[in-house]
Design goal:
The protein contains three helices and two strands. The protein is mostly helical. The protein has a single domain, classed as NAD(P)-binding Rossmann-like Domain (Rossmann fold). The longest helix is centred in the middle third of the chain and has 13 residues.
Length: 90
């Protein structure tokens, strides 16, 4: 993903088109309900996932949306990956 983002950013820069990528971690969305788990099982899974994250919670779509808003506003950002995963990779 990093190579694709940087390659496209480079290729499209002369047209003043910026290319950036948001790399989210786990996000609570209604799609998780399609995995066949009850709501109680899902909540337990989210609690377990949150316990492994330095921020101690699992993101909502609104939490991740902040990264997209940043990239839309940041005219100087090009070829950038924004990892928003609650610190899972540290």
């Amino acid at each position: 993903m990093l190579s694709l983002t940087k390659g496209l950013a480079n290729d499209l820069a002369e047209k003043r088109i910026r290319v950036n990528t948001v790399v989210p971690g786990a996000v609570k969305t209604p799609l998780w309900g399609k995995l066949g788990q009850t709501e109680a099982q899902q909540e337990e899974a989210w609690r377990a996932a949150a316990a492994r994250l330095p921020v101690d919670f699992v993101a909502t779509p609104e939490d991740v949306a902040e990264a997209y808003v940043y990239l839309v506003r940041a005219d100087y950002a090009n070829g950038t990956l924004v990892v928003i995963d609650g610190g899972a990779l540290i």
